[in-house]
Amino acid sequence: QTFADGRFDVRVGPLTLGGAYPALDDVPLQPLRVLTTQAGATTTITYELLVGRLVLTVGADNDGAWIDTVVEGHSSAVHWVFPLAGARVTGAERFFRQGLGFGGPSGVFLIAQASNTHSPNKPVESAWSYDSFLTTAVVAASEHTLLVGALDHKNYLQRCTLYNKSHRRELVDKKPALDEVVLEAGFSTENIPLPNKRLVLPRLHIMAAPSLPEALSGWAHRLAQANRIKVKSPPRFHWDSWYEFYEGHDTVRLQDTLAGMAKTKPPVPFQSVLIDAGFSALGDWLHADERVYEGGLEATFATIRKAGHAPGVWVAPFMVSSLSRLYKEHPDWVLRDLQGKPILHGKGKPFFYMYATEEERFYLDSTHPGAFAFLRTVFATYRKWGVKAYKMDFMEWGFKDSTLVKRHTPGKTSVQNFVDVVRMIKEEIGPDAYFHGCITPFGPMLGFADSMRVGYDVDTDSWTSDGNTVNMFQETIATQYMNNVLWQNDPDVLYVRDGTGTTRLSNDEAVALTLWNGILGGVVSTSDRPHRLAPDRLALLRFVQPGKTFGKARFP
Torsions phi, psi of 37, nearest 5? Predict the structure, then answer.
């Protein structure tokens, strides 16, 4: 329903988004006039502004409503455009929040407890605000669900925010305040230039469903269809060098692993053996130190292939170490702040253990033609060397808001620059290679990633209420709707080896973690060497190895 002042309502069963309006940079539009036209089931609302205009076209489809947005008359975009802002949410009991990517936080929350999640039985009076990416949803007590999101994530970051306006009614604060719950949904356009003075945003969808699980499942399938995604192989089962050896893996340990795999009968059917971080300084992706891997990476991959496994490699395309040849030869390839100084992420122990000194870490500026060409050469060479599996880690390093940094070649959003790199990598590694995303935003990876890490690293010792393993459990539940639809979800590594050396998990913890991986029906990975496992632990690993069909877990 639309109103003369340009506001509009969206109603789905008992749920209402009331009094919504468009906003630019969190500022509600103050139009000189509003024109509304009707054409069948489609309504066009034109907001004439002091400079230019904003046009919303609102329509309906089989699943709910949609909003198209065009901004005209400006030579550059604003930072944020919200087709849907200031919408008062009524009838909702809970909401679903999807994190930007790896680690969330994601999940379902009671609106009445949103401002006091640690003590939900204690009344509070405070403001709260939660961002959600890819999608968000509000849920009525009847289970009716209203979901908001975009299907196109190749150009702009899409964000929904749910927040409250808390008001006191009495002199004391012992009674709960009455809250107004407000939803906004929009796109980050990052002040990019508009040569034609026209900005066309992706369609924003408002989807109705009888329940949240049906809404999320339906939304995942719509995302898959819109982005031409077809999960092409059963869940991945691979061995990764990191989680037992960390930076200490080398040729000797690799040969022991491969020999042990060969003599384990029947063999554990790992599809790939992956060389993780530690073979070189960050950025020197083709130059493994031969004191670590004899003959370098090409010879190492050949050894893995000869043993009957697909070679895999860890790469963090946007990470640059001060100890690398890359940085020493091309310091102009790193990303800079608005004053033109290289942006230092931090200092720390090197990923490459052969170096005894501390390293500084920088971000690669992929808009520099030389840096982009360098990455293309890296992945073309890996393909030539026979690499079939790629663990693309720390991808968020290439996802920096363009209003906050100085790029060599400006003019695009962070999403557009990120997608340029990911698309190029996908082209260079070839259609038969396995692309695994880690520490990355989800939206821009749609249609590129074959699997995706969804939670933090699994702890190897105690499981605390706020620790990494608990985050993994929470995120694998909240993101299960994506699994084997958008990609294969990866819950991180499992540990079945006994509690000695680099893991101190109890037997119950190791079994629980392993069975959880099996229940999920996604990627299963380990660093445990089969020939060094006790018989009961080896049997446990065999029990959860993925089959040839797709599994699907369903959670309350």
Answer: -125, 150
Helix axis angle, 414-429 to 369-384, nearest 10°: 30
Q: H or E element: which one contains 328?
A: helix 325-329
**Model pTM?**
0.93
Q: Which residues contact 156 (CB under 8 A, 6 or more apart)?
A: 187, 188, 189, 201, 202, 413, 415
* Pairing between β-strand 136-139 and β-strand 178-188 as defined by DSSP bridges: unpaired
Q: Which of 529, 535, 539 is nearest to 244 (CA)?
A: 529
Q: Give the bridge partners for 548, in sequence order.
A: none
- The answer, yes or no, to whether residue 169 has pLDDT greater than 70, is no
- Pair of tokens at residue 477: 């539940």
Helix or strand run (H / E) with residue 252: helix 251-263
Separation of alpha carbons 75 and 180, rounded Å: 37
- Selection from 14, 26, 6, 80 nearest residue 402 by Cα: 80
Answer yes or no: are the C-beta atoms of 321 and 360 closer than 8 Å: yes
415 near 429, Cβ under 8 Å? no
At 158, list the tokens.
């899409």
Beta strands in 13-74 (DSSP E): 15-24, 27-28, 33-39, 42-48, 53-61, 64-72
Q: How far apart are CA 206 and CA 65, in angstroms?
A: 5
Q: Categorize the per-residue pLDDT at 123 as very low, low, confident or very high, splitting at 50, 70 and 90.
A: very low
Q: If you average pLDDT over residues 4-14, what whole number do you get?
A: 86
- pLDDT digits 0-9 by tens, 384-435: 999 999 999 999 999 999 999 999 999 999 999 999 999 999 999 999 999 9
How far apart, in whole angstroms, are the C-alpha atoms of residue 518 and residue 501?
25
Confidence band, pLDDT 50/70/90 cuts, at residue 131: very high
